[in-house]
Amino acid sequence: MLSRFPSVSSWSDLPLDERRILDIRESERARRPSRAARLAARLRGSVLDRALIEGADPAASPRLCARAAMLTSVPVRRELALGLELLASRAQTPSRRWWAAPRAAAANAELLRELAALLRSRSSPRPRGVAMILRLLSDGTGPMYAESPATLERELRRARAELAR
User: Fold this and answer.
1) Euclidean distance between the first and final Cα of the chain, in Å?
2) Are 151 and 143 in contact (CB under 8 A)?
3) Mean pLDDT of residues grouped by 10 in the chain (165 residues)?
4) Exposure check for the chain: N or C terminus, fewer CB within 10 A?
5) What is the pLDDT of residue 98?
6) Do 77 and 124 meet the contact criterion of CB atoms below 8 Å apart?
7) pLDDT for res 21
8) Within 13 A of 37's CA, how many CA atoms are on the CB side?
9) ∠ CA 84-88-89 to the nearest 5 degrees?
10) What is the rounded distance in angstroms from the CA atom of residue 57 to the CA atom of residue 42?
11) In this predicted structure, what is the pLDDT of residue 104?
12) Cα dist. 132→48, 61, 88, 115, 156 in Å?
């Protein structure tokens, strides 16, 4: 059996299929961000999200790449979709404990549900669109928490356009 990294002399002795498999594994390992980059992506998430929203290329740095991978992962997208659906359903019957602007969310409930469906259905959404949705849900000073339905609608449509690309 081969060692984890075959020596150069044994490399040429491998069947072509095994060489291809090893090439694929090496390229996947090279593309995966380092542990330090993944940790930085978690700790500096809001800064990296802002950069992605402003149009930074995820391949520009290991930290942006790690953040983009985290944002577009299935568990994160599922959680964001659930948050959008919860917001849309609670907007119909607001309570005193709910902090988001109920009028703005109720007026855009259909768009919130549409974004949730897009997050669940897209196999590889653009990191910029996912970052926009995360900011909308988490920024307490943003349009989701203001009383302007038109401002929220504009931001939701921008996020949808980015996700649909």
Assistant:
1) 45
2) yes
3) 48 56 51 78 88 92 90 94 91 70 87 96 92 92 85 95 89
4) N
5) 61
6) no
7) 57
8) 17
9) 120
10) 18
11) 86
12) 12, 20, 17, 11, 9
**SS3 per-residue string spanning the chain:** CCCCCCCHHHHCCCCHHHHHHHHHHHHHHHHCCCHHHHHHHHHCHHHHHHHHHCCCCHHHCHHHHHHHHHHCCHHHHHHHHHHHHHHHHHCCCCCCCCCCCHHHHHHCHHHHHHHHHHHHHCCCCCHHHHHHHHHHHHCCCCCCCCCCHHHHHHHHHHHHHHHHC
Task: Give the pair of three-digit tokens for residue 28.
Answer: 């996947």
Task: Look up residue 89 and give its amino acid.
Answer: S
**pLDDT value of position 99:** 67
Q: Which of 94, 106, 97 is nearest to 144 (CA)?
A: 106
Angle of helix 74-90 versus helix 109-121 axis, rounded to 10: 160
Taking a C-beta distance cutoff of 8 angstroms, is the pair 59, 65 a contact? yes
Long-range pairs of 59-64 with CB within 8 A, sequence gap ≥ 24:
62/33, 62/34, 62/37, 63/33, 63/37
| Burial of residue 23 (number of CB atoms within 10 Å: 0-12, 13-18, 19+) | exposed
